[in-house]
Design brief:
409 residues; alpha+beta; nine-stranded antiparallel beta sheet; seven-stranded antiparallel beta sheet; 19 strands; globular; binds 2-acetamido-2-deoxy-beta-D-glucopyranose; Neprosin PEP catalytic domain-containing protein; signal; Neprosin_propep; Neprosin; Glutamic_endopeptidase
Amino acid sequence: MEYSNVNLIVFLILILFILINETQSVYGEKANILKREKEDLELEKQLKILNKKPIKTMVTNFGDIVDCIDIYKQPAFDHPLLKDHKIQMAPSSIPEELTNKNISSSIFRSSNMGHRFRHDKCPPGTVPIRRTKKQDLINARNLLHKATPIGPYAYTLSPMDNRVVSIVEFSETKAFFGATAEISAHGLELDNNQFSTAQVWIKNGPDEEINSIEFGWMVYPALFGDSRSRLFGYWTADNHKQTGCFNVLCSGFVQVHSEVFLGALLESLSIYGKDSRILPVKVSRDPQTGNWWLITTKIIGYWPKEIFTHLTNNASILRYGGIAGAKPQTPAPPMGNGYLPQLKDYNKTAFMAEMKYVNEKGQSVNLNPYGIQTKKDATLDCYNILFAGNIGGDWEITMAFGGPGGMCP
Ligand SMILES: *[C@@H]1O[C@H](CO)[C@@H](O)[C@H](O)[C@H]1NC(C)=O
Ligand SMILES: *[C@@H]1O[C@H](CO)[C@@H](O)[C@H](O)[C@H]1NC(C)=O
Ligand SMILES: *[C@@H]1O[C@H](CO)[C@@H](O)[C@H](O)[C@H]1NC(C)=O
C-alpha cells in the first residue's frame, strides 16, 4: 500500500513536471513567434523606407529589379544628418579622367568601354536604385556584428573572417583628397558563406572611430543572391559599428547618374591569359562642397560630407587591394582572378594600374613608389600582393594581387 502511494506521488510529480515544461515551451514558442513577428514588421518598415515608390521599374537581363526613383526622394535623404542637404547634381569640375581626349588610344581604356549595363536609362529627374528584397535584408542582418539596427539602419561588415592584402599609402604630413585606380575585372564562383572584393579604401580618423569609403568590384552572394561581379561602394563613420553599409542598403549615398548604380553588374570581365578588362574607379572630394564623388566611366553619385566625422576635410590613409571573407573554419574564397599574382603576364593576374591619389588642387598624382607599404593578412599560398612600382606607359604605378584562398590559417 505505502509502496504504491510513493509510486503515485512520483507519478504525479512527473506529470506536474511535464505540464510545467510544456507550458514553458508554449510560452517560449509564443515569445519566439512574437519576436519573429516584431522582426518581420521591422523589416517591412525598413523595406518601405528603402524602396520608394518607383516612377518606372526595369528588370535587368539577370533579374535584378531596378526602380527609377524621384531624385529628391531617394533613400539617402532619410538620413537624419541629410535633412537640410542640398543635392549636388554634378561635381564642381569635370574629372580629368573623363575629359581625357586620348581615352581610346589605350588598350586599357578602350576595353573598359565594354562596361555596359543592359537596361534602359531612368527618365529625367529620376535615378536607378536596385530594389532591396526582404531576403536581402535578412541576409544583410545575418551578416551583422550586432543584431539590432540603430538609427538610420546601420549595417556593418560581416562577422566573417576577413583576409586583406593591400598596398597602403600612409602619410602623416600628406593629406589625400581622393584616390583612383584601374582595377582588372574578373568573375569568381563563390558560395553563400563567402565574399571577395577588389577595392580602394579612403580613410581618416583614430582606429575606434575610423571613417572609411571603400569602392571597386565585389562578389557577395549573400547580399546579391548570385555570384556575379558588381560595382560596389561602402562607407562607415565609426569603425563599422553603427553607421554605414554597402551600396544603398542604408541611407547615405546620393545617386545622380541615370543609368549606372551601386550594385550594377560588370558585364565585361577579363578572360584568363587572353584579355584584361578594366573597371576604372575614382573617389574624390569636391573642393567646393566637401562631398566625396564616385566616378567610374560615369559620374555615379557621392557620399555627402555630412555623414562623416573625420573625412570632412581630407583622408590620411589610402589602401589598394582586396578582401576575402568566409565563415570561420570554412574555405576562404578566391580573390582577384583566383590565381596568385605575378608581374610577367598581366593577362594572367588581377592587378591595379594607374594608382594615384588626388591632391589639394584636385589633380590625380602617381603614388610615390617609395612611400608605400604592402600588408598581407594571409599566408602567401592563399593570397599575395606584388608591387611593380612605376612600369611606365599608360600603366604607371601598378601592382598585382589575389590568390586561390582555401583553408587559410
Ligand atoms: C595618345 O596616346 C598615344 C599612345 O599612348 C601617344 O603616343 C600620343 O602622344 C597621345 N596623344 C595625345 C594627343 O596625347
Ligand atoms: C592580353 O591579351 C591581348 C589579346 O591577346 C593582347 O592584345 C594584350 O596585349 C595582352 N595584354 C597584356 C597586358 O599582356
Ligand atoms: C586635413 O584635415 C585635417 C583634419 O581635418 C586638417 O587639420 C588639415 O589642415 C587638412 N589638411 C589639408 C591640407 O587640408
